[in-house]
Amino acid sequence: MEYLYLAGACFFFSIQFIFNKLFTSRSDGSFAAGVWNALATALFMLIYLLPMGGFAVSISQSALLCSLIYTAATLICSGMTILAMKNGKLSVITTYMLLGGLVLPFVWGIIAYKEPFTLTKGIGVVILLLSMVSGILWDKLFPGKNTEPSEKSGNSMLFHIYCLMLFLSNGLVSIATTASQKAEDAVSSDAFLILCKIETAAAALVIMVLIGLVNRKKGDAHGVKNAFVGIVKNPPMTGKIFFILLASCALYAVSNGVANIFSLNCAQTMDASIQFPILSAVVILFGAIFGWLFFHEKIEKRDIAGLLLAALGIVFFII
Fold first, then answer.
1. Which residues contact 260 (CB under 8 A, 6 or more apart)?
2. Cα–Cα distance between 303 and 289 in angstroms, integer?
3. CA proximity to 167, closest of 82, 99, 68, 87
4. What is the spatial distance between Cα 66 and Cα 56, in angstroms, rounded to a whole number?
5. Residue 94 in contact with residue 200, Cβ under 8 Å?
6. Which one of 17, 65, 82, 185 is separated from 293 by 20 to 30 angstroms, measured CA to CA?
7. Preceding amide of 235 cis, omega within 30
8. How far is CA 191 from CA 49, 61, 128, 250, in A?
9. Per-residue model confidence as pLDDT tens for the chain (319 residues)
10. Of residues 64, 69, 66, 80, the one with CA closest to residue 24
11. Are 50 and 194 in contact (CB under 8 A)?
12. What's the pTM?
């Protein structure tokens, strides 16, 4: 059953990037847009999570601590994702995000839960790490073979700072998810997600208002209002663009929520040192497939090399 949960998490975590990319293409690429996305996504998730939980919120000491870490990391990750997508290549962004979701919980599982470390797992980790940075290494070794637009080369220092924040924040989300389910006073996975999304919506709303107040002090008479409607790529906000933004957030919320439920249930019985490396590698594979199917993205030699390494890494973890 745990592998069925893992398969579901892999699939739904993969398709969420389709809707995330749709939102990004209509936004202005600011941190505020990322917070706007986190706010809308959290509200949409609560629409179906609250009825599932009987409109009750279960709180324990460990759940509260883990949810606060989850919330802070989610807001940072959402904001940094938009900023990074504006300044660099999507392939590099995905590499950093998945690498964070792999390395940090893997190390945490071994240190905090004394999860077993074997030679095959060690080899698998090395191969998976190589698969995630293979695109970067390929571009460095064969710069003339890179067919991506030059403005998406992702070589700026600022871009890599954003990506480093993605690495850390996405890793913390994974650690908080695992810790919440392995604690002695753990609440159910649904209850934990409800708590996280309530906190995320509240925190995102406060941040958006603060951004508006800061803009008002800078001379924008409609600072608070513009903080919510001024995140579009080509102002002003129209009904059509607003609908696209909301629809992309709603679809992202559904896919991410279902994926998290699968992941949380999987975390109850599966070692983090197994779950997250496999999850990260499979999402890479699905990401390439969905990119080819829905966005006609060409799968180049560097992509094939990364996919083969990811598949090989999974094999070593299953052995």
1. 9, 177, 189, 193
2. 11
3. 99
4. 18
5. no
6. 82
7. no
8. 8, 13, 32, 20
9. 778 888 888 889 888 888 888 888 889 888 999 999 999 999 998 998 888 778 778 889 999 999 999 999 999 999 998 888 777 666 677 777 877 877 788 788 888 888 778 788 788 878 877 876 776 677 677 766 555 543 344 446 787 788 889 989 999 998 998 899 888 888 887 889 899 999 999 999 999 999 888 888 877 766 788 888 888 988 888 889 999 999 999 998 889 878 877 887 887 778 766 777 777 778 777 777 877 777 676 777 777 777 788 778 777 866 6
10. 80
11. yes
12. 0.82
Largest CA distance in the chain: 62
What is the C-alpha separation between 61 and 180, in angstroms, rounded?
10
Number of domains composing the chain:
1
CB 30 within 8 A of CB 266: no
Q: Residue 232, SS3?
A: strand
List the domain range (segments joined by +) for residue 159: 2-318
User: CA 96, CA 160: separation in Å to the nearest integer?
Assistant: 9
What are the backbone dihedrals phi and psi of residue 30, each rounded to the nearest 5 degrees, phi first? Answer: -100, 165
For tokens 């590099």, the residue is 92
- Residue carrying the six token digits 């792999």: 102
Radius of gyration of the chain measured on its C-alpha atoms: 19
Question: DSSP E strands: which ranges in the chain?
Answer: none
